[in-house]
Design goal:
Length: about 575
């Protein structure tokens, strides 16, 4: 709530004016039955048409004033709600941008998306309704009860009893249905998950002929949602008949008691009409208040979920140091270990090595040996659990964020492209790059040919995720983007896996033409891709078991020799 209150404080005037104008509207609504009673008791009773027209004009004027107050209140309430939601989304997005991979792994990307969209929308709706109704409904309910006492104390007691019973019915039904609505939401989430999973995996489902099985599972989820909706719907359907039963009973009592009082001359007929109007107003406002409480409850829960993200301190903090790019050592690992959160074992254990400026370093090992983990530490996606990582003779934890970004460019295992054009995706590497530089990067990445074949060239469209390109084309485009960064360290994390051997070899030859002071880390499953490297790191189960050139490792490392022999046998077959 503290985060939400911050936005209220930024819009104090609007936050006060919205409920204030709603109170004014409620005051006008409470006056209407009294004017109607006056028309009946005076104008109609005496046949004074002028009096009736004047009072009717007053009713019209009050209706217009009430409408104006409602519009003004809605404007200010919507203004505060929309600005609060905008601020929350902006702050959430900025906060997520400070998270390292550790926080993203722990919290979950899907949860972050839900909180930034659905939860913020629920908070926005809650703020809007809160500012409009949290004072209006109580004013109408208790104002109508007070005016009923003013008209007649005995009938006022009936109003007190009616309000108490209506409170019990409305909030009792609300309490009974709240768990049911939660179950409906859970089942709806399950159905949504099924749709998302089946939509993204439709090719696999068809390939294995599992349509019937998936259809059955989806039907089970939909049926569970239907049953939960029907169950809560049956309970919720009791609200209207029970409330109208109470209201109509009260109306009968008011008319019965009012008739005897009118006959006795202690109550006027117009007052009876006013009392009937007031009981109707009370019913409407109690239903509104119950709905408001439901919405506020959901909004409060969403606000707490949002607050959990905003209160999360990022584990990665940056210093102010800048690297010495003239240093001989580009990267140094000194006894570096890493254990992922909630993991039982270390993913890297006491890794120590040095990569000199301008060297090409190959990294190889079996699946799960820690290859990607090692290069992620160089890019500082994670911080080491033990030991120290140094870039250009500077502890990586002391580098400023800008210095780190200018030092390291990485191409991850899964190529990531964004909707737009080829040009807009490449400019992520360097925003001021010229067309000549873009084409040069594409040539180096072996991507220029298939881009030239498209009539739009650099302006060729790229769909979300780059789904209008093949896997190898996406990898080459992301490599071109990384080359444009002009970083001092280039990391290719198994980013040529979708390339054929000829293209892979051409890319490796092109990378050798890059500036001599560029340090390149190549993670690959193919020994042929890293055989030319100045240094090869062999990982096994998170440990660095061997270091050397291709020829040195063939004679000194059993692990490396087994990898080479297994690949040679496959190629021979």
């Amino acid at each position: 709530m503290k985060h939400l209150l911050r936005y209220f404080s930024r819009h104090k005037v609007a936050s006060i004016l919205a409920p204030l104008f709603k109170i004014l509207e409620a005051g006008f609504d409470l006056c209407v039955p009294l004017i109607v009673a006056d028309i009946i008791d005076v104008g109609i009773a005496t046949g004074d048409k002028t009096y009736i027209l004047v009072r009717f004009a007053l009713l019209v004027g009050m209706a217009l004033l009430g409408l104006g107050c409602a519009v003004v209140a809605q404007y200010f309430a919507a203004k505060v709600a929309v600005r609060a939601a905008t601020g929350l989304r902006r702050d959430l997005f900025a906060k997520v941008g400070t998270f390292g991979f550790g926080e993203l792994d722990r919290i979950g990307t899907s949860t972050l998306i839900t909180r930034m969209t659905g939860d913020v929308t629920l908070v926005q709706n809650g703020v809007n309704l809160f500012l409009r109704l949290f004072l209006r409904s109580p004013v109408i309910v208790f104002g109508a009860m007070a005016l009923a006492f003013v008209i007649n104390a005995k009938i006022g007691l009936v109003f007190v009893a009616a309000i108490a019973i209506l409170f019990i019915i409305v909030f009792g039904v609300m309490r009974l249905t709240s768990p049911g609505y939660r179950r409906v939401q859970e089942n709806l989430d399950r159905v949504t998950g099924e749709v998302r999973e089946n939509g993204s995996g439709v090719r696999v489902i068809r390939a294995f002929g599992r349509e019937a099985l998936q259809h059955g599972e989806f039907a089970d989820s939909v049926n569970a949602l239907t049953r939960s909706q029907l169950a809560v719907g049956r309970l919720a359907s009791l609200l209207n008949p029970l409330t109208y039963l109470v209201v109509n009973t009260v109306i009968i009592l008011v008319l019965w008691m009012g008739a005897s009082l009118v006959d006795g001359g202690t109550l006027l007929s117009g007052d009876v009409i006013a009392l009937v109007n007031y009981i109707g107003q009370i019913l409407v406002e109690l239903v509104k208040l119950a709905n408001l409480i439901v919405v506020i409850g959901k909004a409060m829960a969403s606000a707490r979920r949002i607050g959990q993200i905003l209160d999360t301190d990022p584990a990665l903090t940056y210093g102010e140091a800048t690297p010495d790019f003239t240093a001989d050592e580009a990267v140094r690992f000194e006894g570096v270990s890493l254990t992922y959160e909630n993991a039982d074992d270390e993913s890297l254990t006491a890794v120590t090595f040095t990569a000199r400026r301008g060297q090409t370093v190959g990294i190889i090992g079996g699946t799960g040996s820690g290859k990607s983990t090692l290069v992620h530490l160089i890019a500082r996606f994670y911080d080491a659990s033990a030991g120290e990582v140094r870039l250009f003779d500077t502890p990586i934890r002391t580098l400023s964020r800008e210095a780190l970004l200018s030092s390291v460019a990485i191409v991850d295992q899964k190529p990531r492209l964004f909707s737009g054009t080829v040009r807009s995706n490449l400019l992520w590497g360097r925003g001021d790059a010229t067309d000549e530089e873009l084409w040069a990067a594409l040539e180096l990445a072996q991507a220029a040919d298939f881009i030239r074949s498209r009539p739009e060239g650099l302006d060729a469209p790229v769909s979300a995720g780059g789904n209008n390109f093949s896997g190898g084309q996406k990898q080459r485009l992301t490599i071109a983007r990384a080359i444009l960064c002009r970083a001092k360290i280039l990391i290719l994390d198994d980013s040529t896996s979708a390339l054929d051997l000829a293209t892979d070899a051409a890319l490796r030859r092109a990378l050798r033409t890059l500036p001599e002071d560029l340090t390149v880390f190549l993670v690959s499953q193919r020994t042929s891709s890293i055989a030319y490297a100045d240094k090869i790191l062999v990982l096994d189960d998170g440990a660095l078991v061997a270091t050397g050139t291709h020829e040195e490792l063939l004679s000194s490392s059993d692990v490396y020799r087994e990898i080479v022999e297994s690949q040679t046998e496959k190629e021979g077959k």
